[in-house]
TrEMBL record:
The keyword Hydrolase applies. It comes from Candidatus Accumulibacter affinis. Keywords: Hydrolase. The keyword Hydrolase applies. This is Glycoside hydrolase family 19 protein. It comes from the Bacteria. GO terms for molecular function: hydrolase activity.
Amino acid sequence: MTTPLTQPQLKIIFPAAAIDYLVKVAEELNRHPEAYGLDTPLRRAHFFAQVRQECGVGLKPVSENLNYSPEVLKTMFSYYKGHPAEAVQDGYLKNPQTKKIVRRAAEETIANKIYGDRIGNGNIASGDGWRFRGRGFIQVTGRANYAAVTKQCKVLYPDMDVDFVAHPDMMAASPGAERSAVGYWTMNGLHKLADRGSAGADVDRITAVINKKTDSYAARRANFVIALGALK
């Protein structure tokens, strides 16, 4: 029998999250952990290592933050590498003296450009990039992934009326935030990758599926160490 996930365990991993919220998260993930690929400490540690990076220590399943500087846009995204002038136009602006942001980035525009014609999205003008930006405990991104996660969740949660494509904001609030992450986790076989071990390379293997080009590989490895210590 699988040992239930507890609020005190989650509080170690997500120290800035409210206790009553963590109780609800634990209850949600304890419903059927075997089906969710969250039935061993190792699997849970890998899962929460990724979730902590995606949502932060407050476990906030917010929509993706796209408030980037022009320099980061040109470094991280191929669209802006090819359109550097647009990076200056779309990125945030800082006061050179105070270093404070005086103009936020054009986040909707950025999303449509970097995700347009990718991951099942339509072109820039379609608005799909913004509509299907990252959401949930694992920041699921792109129309194709929203559709695939919807299909998976209908299997895992037959009592749930879910259509993340038609209602993408469902991923940004409980229980959609948790369930979309579980759907993504299981449909990509990440629980099986988690079974391979607890080395840094094992964490990296999962990170590469979730966000291959991220600069947070080291942070996710550190998250794993915290999570495994809490869950043993």
